[in-house]
Structure formats: C-alpha cells, structure tokens
Amino acid sequence: MGQVEEAAEDLPEEPTQDQEASETEEQYDDGSRPGSPLEEDPVPVPSRSPVPGPSTPAAAAPTPTPIGKRRRPQPRAEPTAVEQAILFALKERPVPPPTATREFSHIEYYLLSLAPSLERLSFYDLESDSGENTDSEPDTALPPPAKRRLTPPSGTALTAGRAAAARGEHRGAADTAVRRQDVGDQVWIGAPAPESGPEEMGKDGSVWLSVPLGTGRGRRPSQNILREIAGPTAFARHGIHDLESAFLCLMDPLLLQHIRDCTVAEARRSGIQWYLSIPELKAFIALLYVRGSFNKNLEMESLWSDEWGLPFFRSTMPRRRYRQIMRFLRFDRREERQARLASDKFALITDVWRDFVTNSIRCYRPGENVTVDEQLYPTKARCRFTQYMANKPDKFGIKFWMAADVDSKYFLNGIPYLGKDAARPAGQRLGERVVLNLMEPFMDKGRNVTTDNFFTSLSLAKCLLARNTSLVGTMNAARRELPPSAKQRAELHSTKVLKHERATLTLYQAKRKKSVSILSTLHQTVLTGTEGKRKPETITFYNTTKVGVDSLDQMARLYSTKGATRRWPVAVFCNILDLAAINAWVLYRQCTGANIARRAFILELAKELRREHMLAKAAPPATVQRPLLPLPYVPHPQVPERRRQCQINAHCKQNKTTVVCSGCKRPVCGKCVVQLEPRCLKCV
Fold first, then answer.
1. How far apart are CA 560 and CA 563, in angstroms?
2. In the chain, where are the structural domains located?
3. Strand partners, 495
4. b/e map of 151-180 (b: 16 or more CB within 10 Å)?
5. pLDDT digits (tens, 9 = 90+) for 214-248
6. Which residues form the signal peptide (predicted)?
7. Bridge partners, 671 (sequence order)
8. What is the pTM of this model?
9. What is the pLDDT of residues 81-139, one digit of tens each?
C-alpha cells in the first residue's frame, strides 16, 4: 500500500493477551521487568531508512536478542506533529495511497494543515538527508530528526510537475504541482494538480492554463465564507412594529420634513399663503401608492369620479388640493440650485436619493449573493442625462446602477448615471468603478457579486479578491485579457476550463454559433452535468444569481406610482417610492414574521399613512372658521311673547325657543346660536 503500508510495517506488533500472560515473568537485558516506566512507548514512530551515500557507512546488523529475553525499549526523540498525525490516521482510518487522479480525503487535508511549511507534502516516502540509522545500538539515543525531503513511492506514475514538486524544485505558477493559496496569514494547500494542458496568453499578457474538468478541489477559500448574519439589522428590528414604521425606517421623518419645507417654500415663492403638514404629505403619498396598486392608468379627473374613481381618493383629500401639492412638490431650494448644479447634475433631488440609500443600507444586511446591474426608469421628461437603450421595454429613461440581494430582492445601493464622470481615474473601466462603489458597504464579509459582461473583468476580480469578495460574471469576447480559445468555435455543449492565478474561466459552447465565457473567483473546480446540454456549474450558478436587479425592477413596475409628469425629479421620486415599498415589505415580513402579499401590504400601508390626516379632518376646529368682528355685547336678548320653533335648524330638529336673533330677528335655539351674542350661524 505504498508509503502508508511501509510505515505500518515498521511499527512494533502489539502482543496478544496470551502472549502478555506468558511473558509476565520475562525480564529485559538489564534485569528490569515489564511494567516498569521504561516499558511504555507512548507513540510508536515509523523507522527512517538511511539514505545511501558515499559518506554514509553501512549499518551493522543489530545484535540478536537472547531467547526468553525482551529487549528494553530505547529512548527516542519526540515525534513531530506530522508523524503523530500520520500514526493517528493509520490507527483510526487507513487511507489508500494517492494516485495521479485520486483526491485527498479530509484526514489528508488535516495532516497537511499541521505542517504548512511542507508546501508539497502529498504522502510520499520520508527520507532523511543525514546518514543516521534509526535502528542504532540499544544504549544509544536517537538524534533529533533531520531535515526531510519527499520522494515518490515506487511504482507511482508522476507527471513532470509532480516529480519536480517531490524534489522540492520551484517552478512557474503554471507548472506548480500543488495549489497554494494565502488566506490572510493562513496558508492552505490543495490537492496535487493533474496534468495540465498548454498555456494561452491574452492580448494584455494574462497567462491562462488549461486544466481538466472536476479538478483542483481544496479547502473553501475565505472569500466564500459569509462572516455576518443576513437580514434586518438591530436598528430595523428595534424600530419596526407595524407597516408605517417599516416605511418610516426608509423615508424617515427628517426626509419627509425636508420635502415639506421645499414644497412650502416653492408655493410661497409664487406669492400665495400656502401650508402643507407632514400628515397631509403622507396622505398624498398614500394616494400615489393606491393608484399604483390598482394599475389605474387613468386621467387625474377620473380618480375622483363618482363612476370610475375610487372612494379612497374622495375621502382622503379633494382633487383641487391634490393638484396643488403635485404642482408645488419640490425636493430642493431654488435659491441654492444654481450653485449645486455646477458640480452635480442630480442636485434637484440628490439629498432625497442619498438619504433613502443611506437608510436602506442601515436597515438590512444582504446574504452571500449580491447582483449588480442597471435599471432604466421610463420617463420622457426633459433631462440632460436621459438614456436610450434599445434592449429595454421602455427605450427612454433615467439609468440607475443598482445592487440588490438575490434572495430577498432588497434594494441595497444605487447610483444614477449622469454621463461621463470626471472623477474616474484614467485607465479604470466604468463598470469596474460602478461595482466597487456599489459594493463598498458590503465588502470584507465573504460575499459574492454577480455581474454581466459590461462589468466583469479580470482586474475587477482581483480588486474584489483583495477585499474578500468573489466575482462571478459573463465576459465579453472582446476583452483583451481573454485567451484566443475564447473566440474559437468548439464542439456543441462542450466545456473548457482555464486558470489564471485564483480566477477560473469557463468556456461553454451553448449553441452552434454562440459560446459563453464565465469568469469566477468563487469556483475552484468546475463540474458539468451528465445529461442534456451538460451545463457546467458556473453557468448554472450564474443563471441563478443574475436575477437580483431584474426581479427588483419587475416588482417595482408591477405596482408603480409613476404618473404623467414633465419634471424628471418627480419621476425619480416615484422610483424612490416604488423601491421604498419593496424594502419596507421585506423588512416588515422578516421583522414581524407576517406572511402578507405585496399588494395587500401596499394597500394597508396607504391606510396607515393617511390615518393621522383623517383624524385631523374629523376633529372639530379648535377656533372659529371665519374671523368675527367685534360686536357689542347684549346681555339680554330679545324675548318674544311666546315660544316658537327654531327657524335656523342648523344643529337642531325644530326646537322651541324664546330667543330671537339680533340680526335677522328670527327665533333661534341654543344649539344654533353663538354665545358671544344671540346671532344665528347664518348671520355670523
């Protein structure tokens, strides 16, 4: 059994119970008896065979032990950690010898982790560089273990790379027989690399090494281990107890107050006395949500119609008041706008967008998979950064770069695309800068980010690996770092895997004239299916995790608050409301455990948002609606000769009274009179 069997043969055989009983009276050569402290050998060590050499004399044969005498065990040097682990493995679970294709077991990985300095240890025979013989004379102590080198067992077929590794020769990264990866301060060693194919070089000088499928397994890299619990943060769990509180965690009161102040300032700039309260602003937002949940693409006149409208609109506020709020709705101060537009094209709504994104990041921790993609919010409003994208359902709109959680579809981060960025360093791709900015709050935690061919590049993968974040994404065939084989047509449904340092490139011929290139720093090995199209696991993983932003955009469109508008800040505000409704729904379900559909959540949220406004409407006024002129006080009103019915009937049912109104001289009861002076409500 190779080296493992040879080491087992060198161990002393354990005596049976009969032998122990018959040898209880035997003595050692020096007269000591069994059972003394000298008898116990704590850890048997496999003997080391000497290395023949010109300076090594032939070892003399050991002196035979007389019959009836047992040789006294000699003191030995303490076994090394590797030797103890090997002996433990032999005793607990014997393992077969490694071959050119066999992978290491978990015990073998455990043995390798005990000796990180032996970078090419792969269960070869241990040889001593010194000519010392371990079977020395009985009274001579063994010297300390000498420096060892690794040689392959006899009869094992090795490739050139493995033979060089066994000899301890350092070769290039492409020919290294054992994969080695630095994870922080820890060094891990993978299985022996199989025979590799030829090298390929990209136009930028990147060297790719072709490797067989299903090889290169090793310990799970650190960038693939999530180091925090996904879900709502402690801030969100402490503050969310109903639907409105979940919404206010994202659109906080300070943000609503900022919108209210800017709206009132715009109205008063027009020269009218106009006021808007925060409860009324929340009721206005509730109307936008209800309109989107019913998919009512109707005219504004129809929403308050008795025939086509909804009672929710008529009971919340008049149509004229809704139009006034929409007319004056602003998100910045006009007097400060010109100075900010010089450096920020998004200045008209920058503060609102930034606060919403900050609150979204503060309330939720994403899972292990994050998607980065683009969103085109449809609008034809006049804007300096409107984009045209032919592959989108709505061709025109404002483009946002977004990051979303794959599992919950929670909006994590977003950046509006405003055109050419002067702050971007020269030589850095736009897609690389976008991914690094969006993922900045979520790096160094062992997450994976999935991107499409606009963002994915080898330089981006290296930057993310430096922050303990892996990357999986498709690559454009025009990338300079790709090898020439990425542009060549291969057999249908065939897969080719190439390696560049810690990056894995999968080339899959999906169709006769279409190939797919997947760059991954998450997968150390690539397996393929056995049936059908035989898709590699990198393709399957990409198809599963690429839908984060697309699903988020689809959910936002389903119940969108978007309406006809000529002002692009209002369109962006509607997009914020759509994303806030999705995030609030995710937070509410995970914080309270409620299982509620998203449309039902939006309708209930609208009820809670307008509740305070409806209570204020139902309450009686604290003061008289119309100002009263100072009137002379009449202590005794005119009293008719007999009681007559009240002719005002404003708050009564024809009560009888003897009081007469001093203005119209008609009888008025106590319910229809103002106590300042006996005047009816119609004469006040």
1. 9
2. 2-194, 226-443+546-619, 629-684
3. 508
4. bbbeebebbebbebbbeeeeeeebbbbbbe
5. 765 555 677 778 889 999 999 999 999 999 999 99
6. none
7. none
8. 0.65
9. 656 666 655 555 444 454 444 455 555 555 555 444 444 333 433 333 434 444 434 44
